[in-house]
Amino acid sequence: MTAPAAPQDATSAALSVEAAPAHDGMRTDRFLAEVTPNLSRSRIKGLMEAGHVRRDGQVARLPSEPVRPGMRFDLTPPAPVAAQPASQAIPFAILYEDDSLIVLDKPAGLVVHPAPGNEDGTLVNALLAHCGNTLPGIGGERRPGIVHRLDKDTSGTMVVAKTEQALAALSAAFAARSIERSYVALCWGVPAPAAGDFEGAIGRDPRDRKRMTVVAHGGKAARTHYRTLAVADAAASLLQVRLATGRTHQIRVHLSQAGHPLLGDPVYLRRVPAAARLLPPERRSAALDFPRQALHAATLGFRHPVSGAPLCFETRLPDDLQTLHDRLFGPAG
């Protein structure tokens, strides 16, 4: 077997490879995915259907066609095109970066991905500006691979893939729940017991499509582990929260359903909680006036998608959340 040429660019470099006896009968798309780990099988299928793969000099368009020993395949992907979102110079803190991924500390108020109502000014726009032409590309576009998301007003640690290989591996790790994630949350009231699990399938609220809720039928199974770290006047609690699953708004929904909504949550905190009366006036005002959900993604641990090396990152509370924390619970010792 002739080894494939080392790609200069993970998605646009030409590659030539000869099938060995061990590949006899293998689907063409599977074979090419095996020898080009930077390209997903679905991406290879698309390239074949678009005429960018040749077998023994002839265009090979059928992903399912079996491979025979001695067949030579030439793969010539087109250069990645510019992604639709525009690059925009938006500051964000980088915790780690290499050719495969970026780990960052997302500020509160920054939307992760363009969507109706937030067409630009997002983390994706910022990443496109930061990476420029060094971004190898995913699916034929120069764009970052969003592995997981944080809500607009949730701050903290995120990992973003730069290559298809990294995106596939990290997405699989999240699906297998082998990613270590913990959050710091400030909620109303005092959960009992002091540590435990919130469980309940989460689905769209039929009365308000912008909200999620715990549902009796349908929805997706969800489990959230919490541990109480501190209590302020029996009115508010500082929690460490770990996710066993990763559903939309999971922490916010489970805490709200348990009667302990996050301080400042604009969606799941609908009225002034009775526990607020237990706080002295100045501290009560600080808690009630906090303008966003008091939630921060503090730690993120995973294995590097290429090297397999264990990585773990931790971020401190942003200034606004640290100030609220200190008013309610006192400065950290």
Describe this structure in words.
With 333 residues, the chain is α+β, with helices and mostly antiparallel strands. It has 7 helices and 18 strands. Strands 6, 7, 9, 10, 11, 12, 15, 16, 17 and 18 form a 10-stranded mixed beta sheet that branches. A hairpin with a 7-residue loop joins β13 (202-204) and β14 (212-214). The longest helix is centred in the middle third of the chain and has 12 residues, at 164-175. The protein is elongated and about 80 Å long. Mean pLDDT is 88; it is low at 1-11.
What key attributes describe this structure?
single chain, 333 residues, alpha+beta, ten-stranded mixed β-sheet, four-stranded antiparallel β-sheet, 7 helices, 18 strands, disordered N terminus
Describe the biggest sheet?
Answer: 10 strands, mixed
Low-confidence regions: 1-11
- Gyration radius, rounded: 24 Å
Order of helices and strands: EHHEEEEEEHEEEHEEEEEEHHEEH
| Helix fraction by DSSP (H/I, runs of at least 4) | 10-25%
Number of E-state strands: 18
* CA(first)-CA(last) distance: 62 Å
Gross morphology is elongated
Class computed from helices, strands and strand pairing: alpha+beta
Mean pLDDT level: 88
Number of discrete helical segments:
7
How much of the residues is beta strand, in percent? 25-35%
Question: Can you describe this structure in just a few lines?
Answer:
The protein is an alpha+beta fold. It has helices at residues 28-35, 41-49, 123-131, 164-175, 250-257, 281-288, 319-329, and strands spanning 15-18, 53-55, 58-59, 72-75, 81-82, 93-97, 101-106, 141-142, 145-146, 155-161, 180-188, 195-199, 202-204, 212-214, 223-232, 236-243, 295-303, 310-314.
